[in-house]
Amino acid sequence: MSREQLTIDGEFHNVDEEPKELGPKQTIIEWVYNLHHSRPAWDPIVTYEELFRVREILGQRICKTNLANFFYFSKLPYANSAWPPSVLAAGYTGLARIGKNRCFEFVPLPPGQRDAFVQIERPNGSTFYGDLRTDNGKLSDRFRRFKRDDEVRLVTVVEKSGLVSEFFKLVEKPEGAYDHNIEPMQSPLRSGSRGEADSFYIGEWLFEDGSKREFMIAVEAKKTGCDLFLSQMFHHTNLALTIAEESGDCDMNTTPVYSLGIETVGKSQVYVIQYKPMLWSQLEDPGIAGMVVGAKAVYTFRPGVFGIGGFGMDDDDAPGDKRQGSLLTYGQQKTPKP
């Protein structure tokens, strides 16, 4: 196989003219890793400028990938299949980065982790289960029957149903706080080449002394068949803090952000997972290691909603059903059907 000398950032490197049976992203990531590894001083940060230059060298005949979404994956298998086996064998995974032209960072694999990317914590014995009413005037019968099955639909249902505010009753409050106010701000929250979060909320904790303390919520939503994974959640925490600071909505050095994942897990049923709040100073250290799970819940919309886990509904959950048998008071069992 012929070889040629290629240059990037003023350095010359040899690279195979054709990839060794790797996919487009694998080819670019492996090439960039080898480039960084060959330098006298190890620098784990990969910039968009580097990626564009690498694609100029390799990509016109290998890769048509949109580099603005280079480090975005909708499904966990896609993420792991895009990571080069050679880089994984060297003990590295990747972590999305925001600002300063950064795309991602090579980070050491956590102890015991065998895949580049892993799924978030699943529902378990500590998970709260409850019903969320949709016939309280927030969701009309017409809206519940609208036949769409995508993440925009999921985000809209979450916002209109008040799920986030309801879920935050389970979230650990700061000392002295007794309640909260939460308001949706934007869906989705976009930032050009830095990606997007599915929705963004501003909230405030209410304290017994009359004071208030602001916080932010970055939401990642996944429809049936897609996956939530930790590096994605961390990316959206980073993104929300950066955009909020740029817009002047808050001080990212003092306003914490909660990362919230919402995933469709069944017919009219969603899984919600919350990570404990982080400040801007914590994004670099401890970084993703500081992503600690807080509250978890599985909610079932009652009456059911088309497009959340499919288009079918049980007869007793159909829009317009008013029977009390589907009511659930938290901490109690459902009333048996007559």
Could you please describe the fold and organization of this structure?
The radius of gyration is 23 Å and the shape is globular. It has 9 helices and 14 strands. Helix 1 packs across helix 2. The termini are far apart. Strand 12 and strand 13 form a beta hairpin. It has 2 domains: 106 residues; 199 residues, no CATH class. A 7-stranded mixed sheet has the order 6-14-13-12-11-10-7, with helices on both faces. It has a 3-stranded antiparallel sheet with strand order 3-5-4. It is α+β, with helices and mostly antiparallel strands and 338 residues long.
Uncertain segments are 1-19, 314-338
How is the main sheet built? Answer: 7 strands, mixed
Shape: globular
Discrete helix count: 9
Number of domains: 2
Q: Return Rg in Å.
A: 23 Å
How far apart, in Å, are the first and last alpha carbons?
76 Å
Percent helix: 10-25%
Mean pLDDT: 80
Strand content: 25-35%
The H/E string reads EEHEHHHEEEHHHEEEEEHEEHE
Trace the largest sheet across and list its strands: 6-14-13-12-11-10-7
Kindly state the number of beta strands: 14
**Which class best fits the helix and strand makeup?**
alpha+beta
